[in-house]
Recover the amino acids of this structure.
């Protein structure tokens, strides 16, 4: 179970244990929802419009708060690739709500999201500072789980990254070759002139990736 004193690496190790020992075995039948999802996609997925099913919250056998959301880009994509999923855990420390998403071909890469990032997303994108933090997190991951990043120079933070997702940009750092920390969120409109080129390049790469994979 994730506790206050854990480092990012220890939390990643904890997530990996839950993934390998229990969660991955439930993916095959979509946590018992496979037939229902398939029928819905067959009925509604006539175009390549995104279909995002309601996130499923559950507590892992190790006592961690988990969320999985299944998505599809229509029937044709479903027949090729099956359902795609986004899987993350959330936990609380003294600073507030954190989240960590597992990714990578081998499910050994982890992206962390800080309380400050969710505050800024709520303020700058959702324009609703009264929105509960947990719902803000759900809204963020609904459309922004996929991203592309560049390494950038920053005098304040070592190994800084500039990451473009569908609805904006996250700024953070590479903690290690398998761990990224996303510290804050800015909208595309807030980009400085020297960041616009990065956004355009990464945005193009992100779109190409989504079109190819999804």
């Amino acid at each position: 179970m994730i506790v206050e004193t854990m480092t990012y690496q220890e939390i990643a190790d904890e997530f990996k244990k839950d993934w390998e020992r229990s969660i991955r075995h439930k993916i095959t039948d979509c946590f018992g929802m496979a037939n229902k999802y398939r029928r819905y996609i067959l009925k509604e997925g006539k175009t390549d419009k995104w279909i995002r099913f309601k996130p499923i919250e559950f507590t892992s056998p190790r006592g961690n708060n988990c969320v999985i959301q299944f998505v599809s880009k229509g029937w044709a994509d479903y027949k090729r690739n099956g359902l795609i999923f986004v899987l993350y855990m959330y936990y609380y420390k003294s600073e507030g709500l954190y989240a960590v998403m597992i990714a990578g071909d081998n499910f050994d890469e982890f992206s962390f999201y800080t309380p400050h990032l969710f505050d800024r997303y709520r303020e700058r994108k959702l324009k609703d500072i009264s929105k509960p933090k947990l719902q803000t997190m759900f809204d963020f991951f609904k459309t922004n789980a996929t991203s592309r990043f560049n390494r950038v120079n920053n005098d304040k933070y070592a190994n800084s990254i500039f990451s473009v997702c569908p609805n904006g940009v996250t700024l953070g750092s590479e903690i290690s070759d398998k761990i990224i920390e996303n510290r804050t969120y800015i909208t595309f409109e807030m980009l400085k002139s020297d960041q616009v080129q990065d956004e355009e390049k990464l945005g193009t790469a992100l779109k190409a990736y989504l079109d190819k994979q999804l």
Summary: Residues 193-213 form the longest helix (21 residues). The chain has one domain: 8-213.
